[in-house]
Amino acid sequence: MQTRSFAATGLTLAALFATSLPALAAPADNELQQLKDQITELRQSYEARLQALEARLREMQQSSSAAAAAAAAPPAAPTPSAASTSPAPMSAATASASAFNPSIALILNGTYANLSRDPAEFKLQGFIPSGGEVGPGKRGFQLGESELSLAANIDPTFRGYLTFSLTGENEVEVEEAAFERQGLFRGATLKAGRFLSSIGYLNAQHAHAWDFVDAPLAYQAFFGGPLKTNGLHLHWLAPTERFVELGAELGSGTQFPGNDTGRNGIGSTALIAHVGDDIGDSASWRAGVSYLRHRAVDRAFDDVDSIGVAHTHTFSGTSRTWVLDGIYKWAPGGNAT
Questions:
Q1: What's the helix, strand, coil split of the chain in %, to 5?
Q2: How far is CA 218 from CA 74, 165, 248, 271, 324, in A?
Q3: Which of 113, 126, 201, 272 has the most CB atoms in a 10 Å sphere around its CB?
Q4: Burial label, 264 (beta-carbon count in 10 A; 0-12, 13-18, 19+)
Q5: Is residue 281 part of a domain?
């Protein structure tokens, strides 16, 4: 009896296992079909996108070909109405003409002098008369020395300027007339024409920029006023943190202490060196040395001796002058005002 029961139980388990196999196989078949369907959908989607991109590419190629053909075709003649209403294009010469218009500056300089001595009797004792602008000027109100300046850039490397001096005696003089070649090499500028020499500190500045009415006595005694040069000036500014400036000048040397010799060649030479720097935020300094050489031939001047007899003196030779200059500026916080 026990043997039969075990056999019946084994048959029952085998039947149950056999009936459960189809139930387990059914979910696996469903998942496989779903994967196949998803792959098919992706393939169809990518094919549709590829077809759309290919169609867009063909449209762009056709548009590009049409634009190239239109650019190659000659322009059609404008109709009379279009030609009359559309403005004419501005030419390059008209557009750039304003760039060559010179800048103009007019500086009026008036003075008033209250002098205890007659300025007509002024004389620098112990110095050869230079025949230049020596003395304090006339008494009372005077026009002074006014200036009319014109300047313009010729091209990116050349610049020209012209300055007229209008004196109180109704005279017009050419103060400066020169052109500059900038960027000759790094930090270098070449100047040619008539210009104020760069010797010392004040000589290159115009009278209206001075802190005093007249030039220092040293300029009056040795040069007869600001020294002007007709010639060439080479200027080099060193690309350093400290201010370093070197210069050389070649000129005709017609101004005192030279004169118009009537000869060819160079009548004056000058060598210039300046250095300077800042001291904190409120102070700065500059020092310099200059050397000048002038040639004179029969340079004449009139004088009166101790007993009142007039004499005419002449000088022929070479005049050499050394100039030392220095300045210290202090301005609270760097504000010069």
A1: 30, 35, 35
A2: 76, 22, 21, 18, 11
A3: 272
A4: exposed
A5: yes
Which residue range(s) make up the domain with 293?
100-334
The winner for highest mean pLDDT among 65-74, 284-293, 302-311 is 284-293
Tell me whether residue 207 is exposed, middle or buried, using C-beta atoms within 10 angstroms of its C-beta: 0 to 12, 13 to 18, 19 or more.
buried
Q: Which pLDDT tens digit goes with each residue over 240-252?
A: 999 999 999 999 9
User: Does a structural domain hold residue 74?
Assistant: no
Q: Is residue 246 part of a domain?
A: yes
Residue at 54 is within a domain: no
User: Which residue type sits at 120?
Assistant: A
pLDDT in tens, 158-209: 999 999 998 878 889 999 999 999 888 888 999 999 999 999 999 999 888 8
Task: Give which of 321, 298, 284, 302 is closest to 200, Cα–Cα.
Answer: 321
Q: Distance between CA atoms of 119 and 137, rounded to whole angstroms?
A: 6
